[in-house]
């Protein structure tokens, strides 16, 4: 099999080029190709749980203890991940989760800097 990158001839059965190390089989995904599947309902539910725990959990911790408001920012990574999805339903829920988290974070800063 010939390497598509460097042109080196490789024996059959090799998955990577023995000269340059690049994969010998390159797949281009089109809109019609299948992507790895995941259960979007579970992903959405987990996203809301994370949004509530981190967004409003930081508010409760800062209200009770006067600090720990920074943990709300950790939860922003999950909705940020969902915003990169091609599924419009996931993106819609990611925006809602971001709004929930940002409201909790803003309330946290209002409590911390009153």
What this model shows, in words?
The protein is mostly helical and 114 residues long. The chain has 2 domains: 1-34, no CATH class; 40-112. It is 51% helix and 0% strand. It contains 3 helices and no strands. It has helices spanning 40-65, 77-83, 88-112. α1 runs parallel beside α3 and α2 packs antiparallel against α3 (88-112). The longest helix has 26 residues, at 40-65. The radius of gyration is 22 Å and the shape is elongated. 21% of the residues are buried. Mean pLDDT is 77; it is low at 28-36.
Order of helices and strands: HHH
Q: Cα-atom Rg, whole angstroms?
A: 22 Å
Give the biggest sheet. none
Strand segment tally: 0
Low-pLDDT sequence parts: 28-36
Counting copies of identical and different chains, the oligomeric state is single chain
């Amino acid at each position: 099999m010939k390497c598509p990158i460097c042109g080196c001839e490789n024996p059959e059965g090799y998955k990577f080029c023995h000269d340059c190390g690049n994969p010998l089989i390159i797949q281009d995904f089109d809109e019609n190709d299948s992507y790895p599947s995941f259960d979007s309902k579970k992903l959405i539910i987990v996203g809301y749980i994370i949004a509530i725990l981190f967004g409003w959990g930081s508010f409760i911790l800062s209200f009770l203890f006067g600090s720990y408001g920074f943990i709300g920012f950790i939860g922003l990574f999950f909705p940020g991940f969902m915003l990169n999805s091609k599924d419009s339903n996931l993106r819609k829920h990611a925006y809602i989760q971001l709004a929930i988290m940002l409201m909790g974070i803003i309330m946290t800063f209002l409590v911390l800097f009153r």
